[in-house]
Amino acid sequence: MNRPKIVILGAGYGGMITTVKLQKMLGRNEADITLVNKHNYHYQTTWLHENAAGTLHHDHTRIKISDVVDLNRVELVQDTVVSLQPDEKKVTLENGELTYDYLVVGLGFEAATFGIQGLLENAFTINNINSARLIRDHIEYNFARYNNEKEDRQDLLNIVIGGAGFTGIEFAGELGNRVPELCKEYDIPREKVRIITVEASPTALPGFDEELVEYAMNYLESQGVEFKLGTMLKQVNENSIIVEKDEQQEEIPSSNVIWAAGVRGNSIVEETGFETARGRVKVSEDLRAPGHDDIFIVGDCALIMDKENDRPYPPTAQIAIQEAEVTAHNLKTLVHGGSKLEAFEPELQGTVASLGEGQAIGVVFGGKKLFGWKASVMKKIIDNRYLLKLGGVGLLLKKGKFNIFTK
Ligand code: FAD
Ligand code: NAD
């Protein structure tokens, strides 16, 4: 092989960390590295709920790829991946094609919609900068409309969140801060607005520490968030939703439905013909796709089983970053002619979820529970640590979150 061609698809957590690590680990003449992404920026997916609520501007969440990737060293192709042809070692893009010796697939997640009627047409999802910006503008527009309508259009002021997993809870927390601002701005009494979280399980954040869940629910309820637990979202119409609890259906007016009830791997991966579960490929220990020693899969497109409970690890940024570090290391080994690759072992450092300004819950350091402002500070430390890892002190100072009590 001449100088090997490494192609990395997607500039999310997985793709970016793989790229910045590789540019440090490999000498200029050792490999050609190409990063393909839809946009010329990377975004912090973990902040998108703030952009969607309008509590944080999306420019804070976006990071220009050229600010952290040396474009003399890595070729950035701004294009959309359409399909993969592993047998031909080829990637088809909207505007061309690329060949590779080694491929890293980091194309991230899509909303899992479970075939719910009307969802695709009438609900919004928090997936990327564009979808988050649309949610912010849509809610604001509906608030602006309210006092200009002849009838009392309660649907314009009811915000429904499908799913009280981490995304749903974090978004509800941001709305708890944003709605009073919108009410002031558009002359709407706060008590007219409903934030309704619909969750199929009997509890919010199913499987998470009960004490922390109780804290989160009490706090969010104090901010005006309603919970409909044990309730399935069954259908989304243009101006209402249908939910079902104990076989009883109810229609709730809403023109602001945000679906946050689960994710799956990017459908390009499934369409490639890899065996998948919810669009995620069960990768080997060294993070390669089964039967394809030249393809690594990182982040939300990869599925790794937790041997302790025989269940998949949840798709998180924390795991995507760690997978990327191992992938970069393994690519270096292959480029240097080695064959003994490192096995991926996640080192879970905990989970912290924000509940809005200055509030959060979390479990860290192998079981220590954090509530309120302490958890919120921990969340900022986690976010800032990522920025430091990705782009050093310069990026941290530019994009970091430093105010302990606010954003
Ligand atoms: P992504 O971050 O989704 O990035 C994928 C990249 O691929 C994007 O840049 C996208 O533009 C690009 N792309 C996609 N399709 C194409 C295409 N066809 N062609 C070209 N480019 C393409 N996890 C945590 O660990 N902690 C948290 O606090 C946390 N908070 C979250 C909050 C929210 C609101 C959400 C939605 C998720 C959160 N997660 C969190 C989960 C975490 O964000 C994901 O697990 C993580 O983003 C996965 O990283 P990734 O690299 O696989 O993909
Ligand atoms: P999730 O799968 O974790 O939660 C989805 C929730 O929606 C579940 O509670 C489920 O019971 C509910 N649900 C599913 N179908 C429903 C229906 N028809 N009606 C009502 N409720 C329904 O999904 P998520 O919250 O989007 O999280 C995705 C991934 O991102 C997870 O791995 C999560 O851990 C991670 N994440 C982490 C953080 C954090 O660490 N702070 C924040 C956000 C997301």
TrEMBL record:
<comment type="similarity">
    <text>Belongs to the NADH dehydrogenase family.</text>
</comment>
<feature type="domain" description="FAD/NAD(P)-binding">
    <location>
        <begin position="5"/>
        <end position="324"/>
    </location>
</feature>
<dbReference type="InterPro" id="IPR051169">
    <property type="entry name" value="NADH-Q_oxidoreductase"/>
</dbReference>
<protein>
    <submittedName>
        <fullName>NADH dehydrogenase</fullName>
    </submittedName>
</protein>
<dbReference type="Pfam" id="PF07992">
    <property type="entry name" value="Pyr_redox_2"/>
</dbReference>
<dbReference type="InterPro" id="IPR036188">
    <property type="entry name" value="FAD/NAD-bd_sf"/>
</dbReference>
<dbReference type="InterPro" id="IPR023753">
    <property type="entry name" value="FAD/NAD-binding_dom"/>
</dbReference>
<keyword id="KW-0285">Flavoprotein</keyword>
<keyword id="KW-0560">Oxidoreductase</keyword>
<dbReference type="GO" id="GO:0019646">
    <property type="term" value="P:aerobic electron transport chain"/>
</dbReference>
<keyword id="KW-0274">FAD</keyword>
<dbReference type="GO" id="GO:0003955">
    <property type="term" value="F:NAD(P)H dehydrogenase (quinone) activity"/>
</dbReference>
